[in-house]
Fold this sequence. Notes:
By secondary structure, this protein is mainly α. It has one domain. The protein is about 60% helix and about 5% strand. It contains 7 helices and 2 strands. The protein has helices spanning about 55-65, 70-75, 80-85, 90-100, 105-120, 120-140, 140-175, and strands at about 15, 25. A hairpin with a 6-residue loop joins β1 (about 15) and β2 (about 25). It is elongated. Zinc ion binds near residues 22, 41 and 43. Zinc ion binds near residues 44, 46 and 165.
Amino acid sequence: MTQRTAMPERGPGRVRCHVCGTRWSVRPRAPGRRGDEVEACPGCEAPLRLAPALDEGTARGLVLLAAGFAEERRHHGTVGRYLAEFTRSEHEVDRLLALAASIDYDAWAADNARRLARRDDARVRAVSRFLPRLAGLADSGALTEALKLPAARLKRRYRAEHAHHLAVFARRTTRA
Ligand SMILES: [Zn+2]
């Protein structure tokens, strides 16, 4: 199965599995059903995960975290957890890493300066102070290095999970 961009088109209650591509309707939550119960794909049993926002903002959060920016650490913990939160597949991990690698730090600094000129914001100020150090880490390759191991680990996990769910999918299709 080829892995395309895993964007589930979510109509009213309709979702698309990011592993096997099955579309189904999410049931309305029955009263008494536990809130943390995860909807699973009827084709392969993969837990439903909606498409994460893979954009420059997400990539900026990732590099801030990788460089040890305090607020990001408090919110997201580790790089591994952050990557797992914002991706669902090996392909999405690669896309997020590519976004992180293509960050324009001068544009980011100019962005922040414009925002601060409009309205003071403690976080934007703190990020601005941190940016020179962050750009230095990006230049030296230290940032890429810090992302490498957690990304490889997560991609291994995704590969195993997807193989498992695709095997479930194959068993069900042959039985049907
Ligand atoms: Zn599925």
